[in-house]
Write a structure and sequence with these properties.
Elements: E1 2-6, H1 10-17, E2 24-26, H2 29-35, H3 39-49, E3 54-57, H4 63-74, E4 80-85, H5 88-99, E5 104-109, H6 112-120, E6 125-128, H7 130-135, H8 140-154, E7 159-162, H9 168-177, E8 181-184, H10 186-193, H11 196-212
Parallel strand pairs: 1-2, 1-8, 2-3, 3-4, 4-5, 5-6, 6-7, 7-8
Helix pairs in contact: 1-3, 4-5, 6-8, 8-9
The protein binds SN-glycerol-3-phosphate.
Length: 217
């Protein structure tokens, strides 16, 4: 399973990329706004740190302007993935861009039918938002299971990029189902490393080692 981080905070990206666990980055207009940086500079900066796919979202709502924005974003770096919303214009843009060899991430997916449309439009990634579905009392993980079943039935190449992840359990559940990618906030990626028994066991080892008075170096 690939791990992407869902942030536009360049310091967090640098810090976590150094762990070797970051296969890509996803951003959205809200995260970009929070960064306070110029969007094009921000995308260039992220692409220079992470060689894997970096999702940069168009902000137009019509196909023609989306295509113009995508052309600007694609010039920034080879690993830019154009993120488009799951709307008729977004999917029209997805089809045109993927036919032209661009990576496309279709975002704001909340139903299996929407995911089917994105795959037919040639998306490289579909982003179902599990946390936001859980928030309204639907099951985000049921959506992931349904999309995987549909994609496997038809041999679609679109990768399921589980988004709106809120906890390590979302990551583990998605991995158990065989989802291709999980994009998560930096705090969730950090949580994946933790277990109280690891801390407890390490402390005991270190205490015992200190008693020997030895040093490996
Ligand atoms: O970037 C898309 C998605 O991961 C957003 O998550 O937490 O705002 O629902 P969230």
């Amino acid at each position: 399973m690939k791990f992407f981080i869902d942030t536009a905070d360049i310091n967090e990206i640098k810090d976590l990329a150094a762990t070797g666990m970051v296969d890509g980055v996803t951003t959205n207009p809200s995260l970009a706004a929070k960064s306070g940086k110029k969007f094009l500079d921000l995308v260039a900066e992220i692409c220079a740190v992470v060689p894997g796919p970096v999702s940069a979202e168009v902000t137009a709502l019509d196909h023609e302007t989306m295509m113009k924005e995508a052309a600007v974003l694609r010039k920034i770096a080879k690993n830019v993935t154009i993120k488009v919303p799951l709307t008729p214009d977004g999917l029209k843009t997805c089809k045109a861009l993927s036919d032209d060899g661009a990576m496309v991430n279709v975002t704001l997916c909340f139903s299996p039918a929407q995911a089917l449309l994105a795959a037919k439009a040639g998306a490289s990634f579909i982003s179902p938002f599990v946390g936001r579905l859980d928030d309204i009392g639907s099951s985000g993980m049921d959506l992931i299971a349904d999309i995987l079943t549909i994609y496997e039935s038809y041999d679609f190449n679109t990768e399921v990029l589980v988004a709106s992840i809120r906890s390590p359990m979302h990551v583990v559940d998605a991995a158990k189902m065989g989802a291709h990618v999980a994009t998560m906030p930096p705090s969730t990626l950090r949580q994946l490393f933790n277990h109280p028994l690891t801390d407890k066991g390490l402390k005991a080892f270190m205490d015992d080692w200190a008693k020997t008075g030895q040093s490996i170096l």
